[in-house]
Design goal:
Elements: H1 4-14, H2 16-28, H3 37-49, E1 53-56, E2 65-71, E3 75-81, H4 112-132, E4 137-144, H5 152-158, E5 167-174, E6 178-179, E7 183-184, E8 186-195, H6 211-225, E9 234-241, E10 253-262, H7 265-286, E11 289-298, H8 305-318, H9 325-337, H10 340-352, E12 380-381, H11 387-391, E13 396-402, H12 413-417, H13 422-444, H14 446-462
Parallel strand pairs: 3-4, 3-5, 5-13, 7-12
Antiparallel strand pairs: 1-2, 2-4, 6-13, 8-10, 8-11, 9-10
The structure holds zinc ion.
Zinc ion (ZN) binds next to loops.
């Protein structure tokens, strides 16, 4: 009789090429938020091939789906993503920036080809265990689109897609093997569209009312606001419509997209209301009109310590990898392509996860071959994730598995180029194995489910959840507003 972790490892090894094909397909078909038609359909087919029943169009999102196997309790969910980023198309396995303009220039700069496939592989391994041991329980894989700037899971949470789950697992590609025990920033993303009056900018400028002026004045207002918000808050913007390319036409239309982040949704909401006042002020000053269109939002992440401990123990049993010499040579070149401030920033992020060194051992090492100790942290990851909203409705645990060179920042060409490496795929299988093992333990030991839910209920009793996306807002594609 093999041990549980050996069962998981053997299964993933047997099925390796099946899962590698999924990861490669998603990588080579990079699609941005809510446009992941090819990736979603390929993964849904793979789920059917693996014996799951698939329901598509989940929460009325065309590229969302749920794959289910089994019946009864516990119901264990694995969260998968497969969306890419615009502008990060990059030749795979290159040691310098080589942009690819095919596929609209999109690229997997956040490793979601690995993320989606790893969670799917975990669901398959847990399902296999259920079958072999004739156990009661339900395994679900969630095809979650639009993580990048779309908050797909927050929309899905709003529609009750995860309400029935007993536990949920997710992971993220990264340079290290660790439990993601930090909270994350909540955010709102909102369009401000200004409408003015066009006119000849030389002959009759006095007849024009510039929407672009309104965008610029709004930006000035928000820049003054920065000093008077909490230090953890972040306000970023992108001008999504400048009103055209002619300086001799007063711009009648212009639009700016704001992303406002803070540790709690209530703090984001306060800042958002102040940003709206600034937008209205800019419209008043320029005699234009502003339309405010809410795009998406997500909450802060709620760690579940008892489930994290089970996931950590599972990660330790699956074990860290040993990078080959060839992988180290490739990683050395990636390491050398990073700027000193990128390496320094990586150390700061690592310290948030409990790392105490000065980074000197990274020099000459390049790839992680260890598992970071589990240190439950009250700290904050200065980024956002839509897994957060799932964590408000079901006990959720996440890990990160080493798939890239130490120091690699997310959303860079370096991250994209490493997304098909053998090291990345080893990390993907490590994440899959750890999540599957944790789920199998929960299938065998009901106390795991009970304890995680008791901790969750205790928190929720004091902190009731409201989904941050207003009910009338629907998911929008990246380029929908940019014409
Ligand atoms: Zn990501």
């Amino acid at each position: 009789m093999s041990t549980l972790h050996q069962f998981v490892k053997d299964y993933l090894e047997e099925q390796e090429s099946f899962f590698l094909d999924v990861s490669k397909f998603v990588y080579t078909h990079p699609e941005t938020r809510f446009e992941e038609y090819k990736s979603s359909s390929y993964m849904a087919d793979a789920c059917e091939k693996a014996g799951f029943t698939v329901e598509k169009n989940t929460a009325n999102i065309e590229t969302a789906f749920v794959a289910t196997y089994g019946s009864g309790s516990p119901v264990i969910g694995f969260l998968g993503e497969f969306d890419a980023l615009a502008g990060l198309g990059q030749e795979p396995l290159a040691t310098e920036q080589k942009p690819l303009h095919e596929n609209k220039g999109n690229g997997h700069g956040c490793g979601h080809n690995l993320l989606g496939t790893g969670s799917f592989a975990a669901a398959c391994a847990a399902k296999e265990y259920l079958i072999k041991n004739n156990l009661e329980g339900t395994i679900q894989f969630f095809g979650c689109p639009g993580e990048e700037g779309g908050s797909g899971k927050t929309f899905m949470t709003r529609e009750g897609v995860f309400d029935h789950l007993d536990l949920a697992f997710c992971w993220h590609p990264s340079p290290t093997n660790t439990i993601m025990s930090l909270s994350s920033l909540a955010n709102y993303q909102v369009y401000f569209e200004f409408k003015g009056t066009s006119s000849h900018a030389a002959i009759s400028p006095h007849l024009g009312r510039s929407a672009l002026d309104a965008v610029e004045l709004m930006s000035s207002g928000v820049n003054y606001l920065r000093e008077h918000v909490i230090p953890e808050a972040r306000m970023h913007y992108a001008v999504t419509n400048t009103g055209g390319h002619s300086p001799n036409v007063v711009q009648a239309n212009a639009e700016v997209l704001y992303l406002i982040r803070a540790p709690l949704v209530s703090q984001v909401d306060d800042i958002y209301k102040r940003v709206c006042k600034i937008a209205e002020g800019a419209a008043l000053m320029t005699e234009t009109e502003v339309t405010i269109r809410f795009d998406k939002a997500c909450s802060n992440y709620i760690p579940n310590r008892s489930l994290e401990r089970v996931l950590y123990e599972s990660l330790e049993q699956i074990g860290a990898g040993t990078p080959s010499n060839e992988e180290k040579v490739f990683a050395k070149e990636i390491w050398e392509s990073l700027r000193p401030d990128e390496k320094e920033n990586y150390l700061d992020v690592s310290r948030g996860f409990g790392y105490e060194g000065d980074g000197s051992e990274f020099e000459g090492k390049y790839l992680s071959d260890e598992i970071s100790p589990y240190i439950p942290s009250d700290g904050m990851l200065m980024g956002s994730t839509d897994v957060a909203d799932v964590s408000w409705v079901v006990p959720t645990a996440q890990l990160s598995a080493a798939t890239s060179t130490l120091g690699t920042p997310l959303h860079t060409w370096q991250m994209t180029t490493q997304g098909l490496s053998t090291f990345a795929h080893q990390g993907m299988f490590r994440a899959a194995g750890s999540m599957a093992l944790a789920a199998i333990k929960a299938l065998n030991e009901p106390s795991i489910v009970t304890e995680a839910n008791e901790e969750f209920e205790k928190f929720i009793a004091k902190n009731p959840y409201t989904n941050p996306i207003p009910t009338h807002v629907q998911p929008s594609q990246l380029n929908e507003r940019i014409s």
